[in-house]
Amino acid sequence: MRRWLILTSLFALVLGVAAAIEPSHFAGVPAKDHARVNPMADKPDAATAGASLFKAHCAECHQADASGDGKKKPSLRTPQVKSATDGDLEWFLRQGDLRHGMPSWSGIPQAQRWAIISYLRSLQ
Ligand code: HEC
Q1: What does pTM read for this prediction?
Q2: Is pLDDT at 11 greater than 80 in this prediction?
Q3: 26-122 sits in which CATH class?
Q4: Which of 43, 99, 115, 124 is most buried, taking the most CB atoms under 10 A from its CB?
């Protein structure tokens, strides 16, 4: 009887942890980064520059129109990406998620990351 109780509690714990880990890529973004605003948001050329950068760096996985491959490489035209702040996206681009196949883009200039984010916004 007692063993059952322990086993069911353990099971519930595992389920709870699994649910908590279920990822939004933007849930763990530090507040300071979360609050950042794209300094290029109002510059019309930024989205155009971002489109070429996206083609060069991102399209091989996310497709030229950012619609993803329908499998592991997600669409970037989703409510999750739309509701992420500029700062969330910039942070995630810097971090990447190598374990799941998303490279880090900390090696490109910050202005390029913002331009790419302007492009992503122009799709929404
Ligand atoms: C080598 C393939 C690859 C390249 C190149 C790549 N990505 Fe990704 N990207 C992924 C994968 C795979 C994921 C999903 C990772 C996961 O599930 O944790 C992802 C996830 C993302 C997400 C999170 C989406 C969400 O809904 O949470 C964003 C935003 C993103 N990528 C933007 C970009 C941008 C912008 C570029 C170009 C600078 C880029 N990616 C280049 C493979 C790639």
Answers
A1: 0.86
A2: no
A3: mainly alpha
A4: 115
